[in-house]
Amino acid sequence: MYKVSIVIPVYNVAPYIIRCLTSVACQSFKEKLECILVDDCGQDNSIALVVDFIQHYSGKIHFEIVHRESNGGLSAARNTGIANAHGDYLFFLDSDDELPKDAIEQLYSFIRKYHDVDMVQGSFTQIPLIEKGLTFGVNDFPELIEGNSVIMQYLLNPLPSTCTNRLIKRDLIIKHNLYFTENLLHEDELYTYMLSKYLHKIAVTAAQTYIYYTHREGSITTVPDKTKSYCSILKIASICLKNMEKENVKIEAAYIDLLLSTWRYFNNWPLIKQKSLVRKQQRSTIKTALTTKLYPLVLKHDAMQLLLPIKLLTNGLYIKIHFAINLMLKGCFFKYLFSKKKSQLDK
């Protein structure tokens, strides 16, 4: 049995894949390690490069290529990797990123230290290809976090929502059917939300265990039309709304609010080429919010802001409606109107 399975989807990454594979081959981890490479049917010679790399590799890591019949996207490729992995823990690595030499060893040392944790989260270095590298550290986080509600608070806000750079217990994934939702962009935000519901003990390390490269040509951040990005974020919000639970409704509503209100694409409305599709999804998300059974509790916790970024109504009208509803909830709407009218008369 392998201790860790590294899952790498491969699709049109010929300029980066050898760098990625070399970082895996150089891991200092002494225990049994496998690397599952999922061929997602790209058009370049990425898989040919992978085959050549494996043929010339003579180390102890077990490399295996799994071929899909057709291109399914990142989520489908990761699901194929999950289905073919054998390790106690899974680690998702994107094929245009790389690992520091001691990444897996650093992460797995916390499994040895705290025994039977559901997940280990690492820190990362972010490198824009034309800018100075940035880092994300977790120095202020406790090494061990226990209790589902506490974990959700950390995982759904300050910790990064990316599904890479984590050791996740494979049995937990299989038991709770935690597969990635296919045909969706920004799938990590949804996966992190669903995963957080089943975590009861996690470890966090300040060690830099991942090197994340941004602004690759053809990646989500460089695609000029943001229509699918917008629609995906709204669909994710709808799914989260449908899966909210009473015990953690405040935390979950705050995550949905954060997801919608801070996502940078919502500041790029001119980049939406198919605005009618986005408006249709906006209406669907609003309907989901208004019909969810826990919506009264969402309102109670002042998470009405979760709909604020949905610019279905123009000229600030929606913001005014949101402001008025909040005042009504606080029982001071008419007091506000009276004071505003009085100030106008005084003028």
Structural commentary:
Helix 7 (187-196) runs parallel beside helix 8 (227-242), helix 8 packs antiparallel against helix 9 and helix 8 runs parallel beside helix 10. The radius of gyration is 23 Å and the shape is globular. Strands 1, 2, 3, 4, 5, 6, 7, 8 and 9 form a nine-stranded mixed β-sheet that branches. With 347 residues, the chain is of the alpha/beta class. It has helices spanning 17-25, 46-55, 74-84, 103-114, 148-155, 170-175, 187-196, 227-242, 249-262, 275-291, 295-300, 317-329, 333-346; strands spanning 4-10, 33-39, 62-67, 89-92, 119-128, 134-136, 144-146, 166-169, 201-214. 42% of the residues lie in helices and 17% in strands.
Describe what is shown at a glance.
By secondary structure, the protein is α/β, with parallel strands linked by helices. The chain is built from 13 helices and nine strands. Strands 1, 2, 3, 4, 5, 6, 7, 8 and 9 form a nine-stranded mixed β-sheet that branches.
